[in-house]
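User: Predict Neutral zinc metallopeptidase's structure from this.
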Amino acid sequence: MSFNRNIKLDPNRVQTRSGGRGAVIGGGSVLAVLAVFLLSQVTGVDLSGLLGGQDAASGTSTSSTIDTSMCTSGQAANQYTQCRMIATAESLDAVWDEQLPGQAGTAYAEPGFILWDGQSVSTACGSATSAVGPFYCPGDSNVYLDMSFFSDMESTLGAQDTPLAEEYIVAHEFGHHIQNLLGVMGSTDRSGTGADSDSVRTELQADCYAGVWVHYAATTVDPDTGTAFLVEPTQAEIATAINAAESVGDDHIQQRSSGTVNSDTWTHGSSEQRVRWFTTGMESGSLEQCDTFAVAGSQL
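Assistant:
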């Protein structure tokens, strides 16, 4: 999904950091480390449940090797990954600034967006290592994305590393921010697992919200230029986002890692569910249609 070349970007929309060294996540047991490793391969990880009682590390450097100085146009977004992240965030801001008040009667507030490269990063939800994929922290309303994730996505999960696949991942994390603004994060029990758990329902709703963004992305304009942020996606481009959603299904990850599937341990939903809810949002553009908490478990 390409950005129109003449849209204007603000490089300051994101913060960049280089990680510190040697952060510890969770309790340190072998099972805990394994669980974190498996979850790290899934987009949309919410670390508050894993790290809720842990203080943020104090040694993370704020200097960064991620250069965003060239990220001033859609042309740059089509050329550089870090610029694409900025353009995606600005497009998401514009879409949700219109749709959230219009559909839910709730004002939109931009989340922070942190691009980082290194071994660890400090958040209000605790310290995360570079093994953890993109995640949203409700405690500081920030989306965190390790820039190495996209290079690992294809080899580890079997997902195609394409622009729209990358944008879907960011849109999913912004979907968690929308949930936070709507009170979902504070009203659900995301500590449990299983195919019918609040954890799965939360993740599937964020997938649906990512689809809502795709629905409006090619018609929502850059306020600086009056030009739509994105070119209408082709069916081939949409297929790559669907491929990314399939690749982060719990069943797909379990099959690749252990050769078996256990739905009792699911936290994000199956590949089929993730694709279906993403598609629901993309085709309907409706937040109401994304209410995964209103359907029976058999309909998830």
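The chain has a mean pLDDT of 82.
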